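User: Could you walk me through two proteins back to back? I'd like the raw sequence and the structure tokens for each, with a short line separating them so I can tell where one ends and the next begins.

Assistant: Of course. Protein one, sequence then structure:
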Amino acid sequence: MLARMANGAVDAFLDMTIDEVPPHKRDYHLPVIDEGDGPTLNIIIEADRVRRVRSQPSPTVNHIIAERSRRLQLGFDYDFGMMEDGVTPDPRGIHTIGTTEADWVGWNEVINLANALIDVGDTESTIDIVTDTGPASVTAPEWQAIMLAGAADRQVIWAKSFELQTMDPIPENFEDDSFWS
């Protein structure tokens, strides 16, 4: 592939080799180097070649929103901590709480039940749940503690996405964890 040059600009791209160009016109042709595979095309003219660089488009707010959505659906870990004696670890251990859209349909049922139990003063009855880790039973106050821990985790993601949306330009590596913690 060659670029035919005229007045310092590419006049045409030609599907031929330099040997196919008449010798007296070879000074007006440069080899073409193709780089990348993105949808955005940049043509860079150098002294001895022309580079056609295909790159990804610059990130937009929609890219940040998609990344935020992905991160919000990763779930979070909840540590049930210690038993009331403060020495014995709670046998439920650490559970990963799923937060996909489908998970939230189920969790909303648990939230409603926990709220109803609290409203009638019941802090002892248990609610059976299944997390990404496995089954567990929780009281209404324990469920509220799980929701508070999840909210703290999720609020960081929301806040960081808003910060990224105000940046101009949006960093090319906006998906890097350093922007989200």
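----
Protein two, same layout:
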Amino acid sequence: MLPAPSILFSDDSEGFTAWASRALVGSGLAAILLTGLVSPHDAIAQTEAEHEVSAQVEEYREVIVDSPPRFSTSSNETVQTTATYALVTNAPRAEAIEAEVQGDPPEGVAVRVYFEPPPGAEAMDSDPIEVLSRDGEAEARTLVQGVGQTAADDLEVTYETEVGIEAEPGDVQIDLVFRLAD
């Protein structure tokens, strides 16, 4: 290892030359140093190298929602359940979280959803927003707006399900899709 620059520039040039010849025996650098073609300072500068690292950063956007607990209910009853969700986005623009029912929803069941907003964003309403009405009408709805670059987890999702008298008895499955949208 070369000594610190304060030693390299000392007045004892003979001492330095002796040190350099012992430290660098057999190397071409010792010969250049000793013949005076390169100053000790230039030799140190040449032992450093610059390297540029570049990368392509891809946009990443993901909403991960835990399934709500399964429940059983009778007609004319409203049930509220909760779950959690996580959100990661590096998009350089504000986004919204949307909810949409997929497939053919059953009649007689209404579904409302509330997403706790991540830091810096705001919920569209303080109550759950209806994404499926009891008459079977489904509409994509914005639940949260102003979502910026964030990584958040353990955020709460509230599902409110209302079953009307017109709902057929039996198993009912409603497929909800949550997504980040511009």
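The longest helix spans residues 13-23.

Let me know if you want the two compared in more detail.
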